[in-house]
C-alpha cells in the first residue's frame, strides 16, 4: 500500500493532480479528502458560521483522520464523515464507506501541518500556483458548489484564505518531497510525479512479496 499526500493552497490545482494519478494508475486508488474531516459547527449562529475559518488547522478533526488512515493501512474498512459547507455541519446519519486500496491519496490544504498525518505518508506533493490563479478558481468553486456570492468569497479570501495560506499552508511545503509549480497546468512535472509514484509502487509491491 502506498500513501500519497497532496497539499497546496485553495484553488492551486490539487484536484487536477489527483485526477492525473487516478487516471494513470491501474491499481485501486482511494482518495481521502481533508474537507470531509472538518469539525461540526452546527451549533454556531449564522454570523459565527459566516466567520468560520476553514483554513486554520484547528478546524480539522485530525484525530479522526489519522485514526481512519491508520485503519485503512491495517486493511480495515472505515466510515468517512460527510461534511456540508452550506450548513457547516457534519452529517449525523450519513457516512461514506471507504475500503483499503493499493494507493491511498490524502488531499487537502492543511494536511502537511499535522505531523502525525505526515508520518503516515510515503510521498508528499505540494501543488504551487499564483495567488491570482488560485483566487479565480476559489471564486468559481465557492459560487458554483457552495452557494456563495462574490462578496462572500472576496471577504473570506482577504480575511482568512490568504492570511492562513501565508501562516500555515505555504510554510508547510518544506515538508514536501516534490513541489509542483504552476499547479495542475504543469504537465511535465505531473508526468515526472506519475513516473515516481509508479516506481515507488513497484518497489512497495516487491517488498511485500
Main sheet characteristics: 5 strands, parallel
Q: Spell out the CATH superfamily.
A: P-loop containing nucleotide triphosphate hydrolases
Terminal Cα span:
12 Å
Provide the CATH top-level class.
Alpha Beta
Radius of gyration, in angstroms, nearest whole number: 17 Å
Number of helices: 7
Main-sheet strand order equals: 2-5-1-6-7
User: Based on helices, strands and strand pairing, what is the structural class?
Assistant: alpha/beta
Strand content bin: 15-25%
Rounded mean pLDDT score: 87
Order of helices and strands: EHEHHEEEHEHHEH
Low-confidence stretches at least 5 residues in length (pLDDT < 50)? Answer: none
CATH topology: Rossmann fold
Overall, the morphology is: globular
Number of distinct beta strands:
7
**How many structural domains does the protein architecture include?**
1
- CATH architecture name: 3-Layer(aba) Sandwich
Helix content: 40-55%
Amino acid at each position: 500500500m502506498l500513501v500519497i499526500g497532496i497539499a497546496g493552497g485553495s484553488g492551486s490545482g490539487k484536484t487536477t493532480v489527483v485526477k492525473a494519478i487516478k487516471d494513470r494508475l491501474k491499481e485501486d486508488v482511494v482518495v481521502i479528502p481533508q474537507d470531509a474531516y472538518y469539525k461540526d459547527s452546527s451549533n454556531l449562529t449564522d454570523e459565527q458560521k459566516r466567520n468560520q475559518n476553514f483554513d486554520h488547522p484547528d478546524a480539522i478533526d485530525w484525530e479522526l483522520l489519522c485514526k481512519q488512515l491508520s485503519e485503512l493501512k491495517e486493511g480495515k474498512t472505515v466510515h468517512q464523515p460527510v461534511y456540508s459547507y452550506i450548513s457547516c455541519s457534519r452529517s449525523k446519519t450519513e457516512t461514506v464507506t471507504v475500503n483499503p486500496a493499493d494507493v491511498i491519496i490524502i488531499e487537502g490544504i492543511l494536511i502537511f501541518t499535522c505531523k502525525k498525518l505526515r508520518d503516515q505518508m510515503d510521498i508528499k506533493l505540494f501543488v504551487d500556483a499564483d495567488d491570482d490563479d488560485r483566487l479565480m478558481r476559489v471564486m468559481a468553486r465557492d459560487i458554483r458548489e457552495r452557494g456563495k456570492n462574490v462578496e462572500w468569497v472576496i471577504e473570506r479570501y482577504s480575511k482568512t484564505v490568504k492570511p492562513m495560506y501565508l501562516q500555515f499552508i505555504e510554510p508547510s511545503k518544506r515538508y514536501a518531497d516534490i513541489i509542483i509549480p504552476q499547479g495542475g497546468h504543469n504537465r511535465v512535472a505531473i508526468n515526472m510525479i506519475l513516473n515516481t509514484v509508479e516506481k515507488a509502487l513497484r518497489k512497495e509491491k516487491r517488498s511485500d512479496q
